[in-house]
Amino acid sequence: MTFTIRAGLMACAASALVASAASGETITIATVNNGDMIRMQGLTDDFTKSHPDIELEWVTLEENVLRQRVTQDVATKGGQFDVMTIGTYEVPIWSKQGWLLPLTDMPDGYDADDLLPAIAGGLTTDGELYAAPFYGESSMVMYRKDLMEKAGLEMPDAPTWDEIKEAAAAMTDKDGEIYGICLRGKAGWGENMAFLTAMANSYGAKWFDMDWNAQFDSPEWKATLTDYLDLMNNYGPPGASSNGFNENLALFQQGKCGMWIDATVAASFVTNPTDSTVADKVGFALAPDKGLGKRGNWLWAWNLGIPAGTEKEDAAKAFVAWATSKQYTELVAANEGWANVPPGTRTSLYENQEYLDAAPFAKMTLESIQAADPQNPTVDEVPYVGVQFVAIPEFQGIGTAVGQQFSAALAGQVTADEALANAQALTSREMKRSGYQD
Amino acid sequence: MARKVSTRRKAVNTGIAWTVGLLIFFPILWTVLTSFKTEAQAIADPPIWFNFHWTLENYVTVQERSNYFRHFWNSVVISVGSTLIGLAIAVPAAWAMAFVPGKRTKDLLMWMLSTKMLPPVGVLVPIYLLFQRFGLLDTQVGLIIVLTLINLPIIVWMLYTYFREIPVDILEAARMDGAGLKDEVISVLLPMAVPGMASTVLLNIILAWNEAFWTLNLTAAKAAPLTAFIASYSSPEGLFYAKLSAASTMAIAPILIMGWFSQKQLVRGLTFGAVK
To answer: Which of B136, B155, B222 to mutate to test binding with chain A, by most A CBs within 10 Å of its CB?
Structure first.
């Protein structure tokens, strides 16, 4: 036993020494497990070839775990990561806290002016870019052309919510397990509240007025939630209150949804014949509106940022420039085809005929992204930035709590009025507690 | 004298035992089955049981994308290291509590156990800051320390229970024969407590192997064990169940095999002293 303990301790110590000796000019990149990110990991030989002195370590995590880990690290200046994959929500908050390095002196040929203005605008604080977009997305309507034809309807390029309702009713065949519309119902600020906040914008609803008073008691929010519940209860799939992106993707790919309003990135999944049974029957349209000048689409980008605590700023910057450059897009196209390049970040991509030919959803993606304005997300003026979120630190907690109320309403556990009243009460309480009001 | 049990009752008992066993084992079986499906088959509704084209594609993808052996080695070092260090601390502690109990021994034991009742997230930030200050973030040493500390109460409690079953007279006899404290513990006490020690070691290795909260929060790339390896296969946008299942199967396989081979010791140790 003594020998075993001694041998075990020696093995641990030796292993720890090996681990600590392996450090050098190695940058650690925290990222999410998305197709585009995984593809980037597979292509890093190209980077290390041109930067032989830099080694890359990848930490891939689930989105929520990643968000918690990188927030913890950047807030405590832990220094565990040199490049972080962060969303459009984090960038304005973190840059104001001084947690991110500005990307001012990117290498020659980076062409920051080529970034899509709608995307770059959400990553800019006081005129400086704080994160480089890796891929961008909005939301749009994906619909079954065959079912629309069967119902004798035609989907306009820019539908209204009334037209969506009419199409949902016409396509629904519950006995045949075809549901007119599939929408997010799972509770979470990035789940059902991403969809509902964007939908609310098109109804003229808002989270807060200019004095940071919660607005869930407004008629606009009531109309939003009532119409959402009406659509889902009458034409949605059963158990929708636990459906998020992946669950709806699975339903749509199995031919069980007439329409699905969700992230533009889903277009490449539903048109992929390997996984989708309806790959050749999908049409695309802009997210619906209510005739008030705002559409119900969101704006999101996964971006690469450099934490202020890093000691390897130059190497980190070289990597960020490589991964978000035009040359990287060409590298992906050469290796995996134009349909697989990360979308939604550069104007030049949407001027490239090869890309437009390979990606039938490209035009609609660009129009959707351009239709969203994070600085003026809804009809009235508001004190916050963000289309489907409010870029304040408290929003993750509040957004998820409100999402739970709306998800409960979809599950039939509370009425729409009760859900709105609860949302109003909890949001007002948290905003007061956080010092936004006296 | 053995009790007479009717054949019918035996059949019922066997049926219940198999049902419970299968229920407990079902999630693992489903994970293993899913790991051999395509992503589309993994989410098929109604679910596909066995009638699908079996593929190793997910295992190939996982092998290509991740450095499995680095994660595996980290898991081995962290779980074995923390268990051995825990044992080195817990054996003298349990000996003292079992054979030289004081007035407050029971309170001390309860206090040790009460530390397990604290939700780990409650001490995450202080521990994270301490780790940062001492350069222990993303190191095997750091994880060995934290896992030793969180599993120590269980090791002490288990060893204490086993030691209490050993007649104190035997130790006294050894002492009268001239055995010192070291000989008493190493040559007399430990050999008698081998079944209990074995199950303590095995249980703690399993607990440390499966620990996900601290291992996910305190590691990045270098010291990340298999729990972090599994976590990297969950995706917010895109289908991932088949690949996640392949990663999970690869992560649990070593501990499952170890548990299979040592189940005799594990059961013997866990039921040690249960019947008097």
So the answer is: B222
